[in-house]
Design brief:
Elements (H helix, E strand, L loop, with lengths): L1 H13 L4 H4 L3 H10 L5 H14 L3 H6 L2 H8 L6 H15 L9 H4 L7 H12 L8 H11 L9 H13 L5 H14 L18 H4 L16 E11 L8 E2 L10 E2 L2 E4 L5 H9 L10 E4 L5 E4 L3 E11 L10 H5 L5 H10 L2
Parallel strand pairs: 1-7
Antiparallel strand pairs: 1-4, 2-3, 5-7, 6-7
Helix pairs in contact: 1-12, 3-4, 3-9, 9-12, 10-12
């Protein structure tokens, strides 16, 4: 089809020089695809390079402790991806003899690997003719063909997958799938694409009908919950502090944080000070409490908006569970805590 040939030709001329494209082996392709879920290439590339340096092979990642994987991942968000990455590395290294499943169907059985990631690995590494369907693909196809199906509806994936499959050249699945993703990332971008320079502007239904900014259609709205966090940085008689590992449910599970007082609303300084004084989670009554910076830090997640303040609570006691500053820095934290520590930690 003319669309497919034109798209691949565009890709060969405009594709970015990315390290996982230089050796289409399953390990770097898998690693890059997991990292780039919910993450732009510009943000994910430095992480990819750090991971490859630390873990040149899947066996190296499997042998690493989970905390090292999470520490390297720190800042990419959606930390379940990192845990699944580590679990899958161990499964491949120890249960599958160090080799990735050699097909789309086999790849789908790996933890953290869904339709899109399995299709990407299978087509790029094995040349298997399976289409990839992600946000970029939805956007390119919806605009080019003028499709007004709501992509948040469950039926949309089947429709777009069938259309992508009909366009996919069986003997060049790798180039076509990468071209679809690259075209959506560089040319057919979500907002204000440069349609004047687009190779498809004479056939694109959205461009010809003035609906570029209306397609693809996505009607479902994400409900955002506000939460109010007060982190307590303990300073005991030896200058040590306390950190806790978050449980296995909710946001950031498995990462570390300071003792936390969560409130239903943003409480004032006096009320928060009293809450900290009475907080049984500390195990002591603070001798002094002070707010460490004047502004509330806003941290946005996909479904939550966090309002965060950091407080220092001092005591002359020597706390058995407290650790020193060097130990504190080695642990993996949510990026909002890490950033605060980078600016304010002594």
């Amino acid at each position: 089809m003319i669309f497919s040939k034109s798209l691949i030709q565009w890709y060969l001329q405009h594709k970015r020089d990315l390290p996982w494209r230089k050796t289409p082996q399953p390990y770097p392709v898998w690693l890059s695809e997991i990292m780039l879920q919910q993450t732009r290439v510009a943000q994910g590339l430095p992480y990819f390079l750090r991971f490859i340096e630390a873990f040149p092979t899947v066996q190296d990642m499997a042998a690493a402790p989970e905390e090292q994987v999470l520490k390297l991942w720190q800042g990419l968000g959606y930390y379940s991806r990192a845990r699944n990455l580590h679990a899958t590395a161990k499964h491949i290294a120890y249960d599958l003899g160090g080799s990735f499943p050699p097909s789309y169907a086999g790849l789908l059985k790996l933890k953290g690997v869904g339709d899109y990631t399995a299709a990407a690995i299978a087509s790029i590494s094995y040349g298997e003719a399976v289409p990839v369907v992600d946000g970029n693909v939805y956007r390119v196809l919806a605009r080019y063909f003028g499709i007004d199906t709501d992509i948040s509806h469950s039926s949309a994936r089947k429709q777009f997958t069938e259309l992508a499959a009909s366009l996919l050249p069986k003997d060049d699945a790798s180039a076509f799938n990468q071209a679809m993703m690259e075209f959506g990332a560089l040319q057919c971008v979500p907002k204000n694409p440069n349609c004047g320079s687009c190779i498809f502007n004479k056939e694109c239904v959205a461009f010809l009908t003035g609906r570029v900014n209306q397609l693809p259609v996505k009607l479902k709205k994400t409900k955002v919950t506000n939460r109010y966090f007060n982190y307590i940085i303990v300073k005991d008689g030896a200058g040590k502090t306390i950190v806790n590992r978050r449980g296995d449910k909710g946001i950031w599970f498995g990462l570390y944080e300071f003792p936390l007082v969560e409130t239903e609303t943003l409480t004032d300084k006096a009320a928060t000070t009293q809450l900290i004084e009475n907080f049984e989670g500390l195990g002591f009554v603070p001798k002094s409490i002070r707010l460490l910076h004047p502004d509330v830090i806003i941290h946005k997640l996909s479904h939550q908006k966090l309002h965060i303040r950091f407080w220092e609570a001092g005591t002359d006691l020597l706390l058995t569970e407290a650790i020193d500053n060097e130990q504190v820095k080695l642990l993996p934290y949510p990026i909002v805590i890490h950033n605060f520590m980078e600016k304010h930690w002594e």
